[in-house]
């Protein structure tokens, strides 16, 4: 399973 | 980026800047909880650890730097500024904020998207942000009259969270974007705390 996506919110 | 997200960011930014300017202009931090401000600084530092590892956009990076520096400036003023520090209501601001940090940290170790440094820091910052306003709310309840600006500060912070929830709803339907359940749950708790405050604020 892949690394969670980067957080795009502040 | 949708309008709700942008409005959320702007109300958030506005709340922090209003507070910083108020403290700086009046040389007084009466009614402001230093513990809440320290918690926010920890929140921003923990969440924006990704500043150097995950680039999203110039907007995101600039906002992250602004949030870290403005919250650090508020804490610096309250601790070190020769005039401001004398106006701090130390005896009133007694909330055990270390307990919140410890609880958020333990929660982040148990409930996270993945057991990595980045994800634990992120989850920790989300949990801590949800409850960081508590020392401020306790301080406000102790004071007889809520200062207008302090009331507005809490209002803008509440508006920020409400806009973010609208943003998640919007993203869910338009992009099929599933905001992580950690943010949903913590965001709802956080918004609830503000709603509770405003219910009593307007009753008075």
Automatic annotation (TrEMBL), chain B:
It is found in: Endoplasmic reticulum membrane. It is a multi-pass membrane protein. It comes from the Eukaryota. Keywords: Endoplasmic reticulum, ER-Golgi transport, Membrane, Protein transport, Receptor, Signal, Transmembrane, Transmembrane helix, Transport. Residues 1-25 form the signal peptide. Belongs to the ERD2 family. This is ER lumen protein-retaining receptor. It comes from Leersia perrieri.
């Amino acid at each position: 399973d892949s690394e969670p996506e980067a957080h795009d919110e502040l | 980026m949708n309008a709700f997200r942008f409005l959320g960011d702007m109300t958030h930014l506005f709340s922090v800047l209003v507070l910083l300017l108020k403290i700086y202009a009046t040389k007084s931090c009466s009614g402001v909880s230093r513990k809440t401000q320290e918690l926010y600084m920890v929140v921003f530092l923990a969440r924006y650890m990704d500043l150097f590892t995950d680039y999203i956009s110039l907007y995101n990076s600039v906002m992250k730097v602004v949030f870290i520096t403005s919250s650090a400036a508020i804490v610096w003023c309250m601790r070190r500024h020769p005039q401001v520090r004398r106006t701090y209501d130390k005896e009133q601001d007694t909330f055990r904020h270390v307990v919140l940090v410890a609880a958020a940290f333990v929660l982040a170790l148990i409930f996270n998207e993945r057991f990595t440094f980045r994800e634990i820091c992120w989850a920790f910052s989300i949990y801590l942000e949800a409850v960081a306003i508590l020392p401020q709310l306790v301080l406000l309840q102790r004071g007889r009259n809520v200062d207008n600006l302090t009331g507005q500060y809490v209002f803008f912070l509440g508006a920020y969270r409400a806009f973010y929830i609208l943003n998640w709803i919007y993203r869910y339907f338009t992009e099929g974007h599933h905001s992580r359940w950690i943010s949903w749950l913590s965001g709802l708790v956080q918004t609830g705390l503000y709603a509770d405050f405003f219910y009593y604020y307007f009753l008075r």
